[in-house]
Amino acid sequence: MRTNILAKALVTATTAAALAAGSLAAAGTGVAAPASAHPAVAGAAVTPQAVNNLGLNATQAKKVQRWLKTYWHYTGSIDGQLGPNSWKAFQRCLKQYWGYTGPIDGVVGKGTVKGLQRLLKQYWGYTGPIDGIAGSGTKAAFKRFADGH
Q1: Cα separation of 74 and 60, whole Å?
Q2: What is the pTM of this model?
Q3: What's the CA gap between 5 and 137, in Å, rounded?
Q4: Which pLDDT does position 46 carry in this prediction?
């Protein structure tokens, strides 16, 4: 019986040592891996790529894009994806008439949403606060806006 216990202990110790050696070998190769062949570009302009339809479906977003193309110099495709170029055009509208004071950068931030909420409150039945949060009331009014164009 004593031999059996010693054999199990030896097998357990050998297995643990083998696993540890394998882990160390893998760690060694990971540490020795060369740096990326593509260094980061410093000073490059960052362009927002996100699409933010604020709850609109593609058909509604296309209506908004057609309106933006007609009135606010939107030059992108009518694809139902409100990306940065759509929002830049919308920001031009919001800046001229609805109190938006931020940059024309295509980012749907708090300022953009506040300007949109002012527009929606005036004409499209938005009854919530002008808080820059695109909640359900803002999205419902934006849908009415889209359906009206």
Answers
A1: 16
A2: 0.67
A3: 72
A4: 46
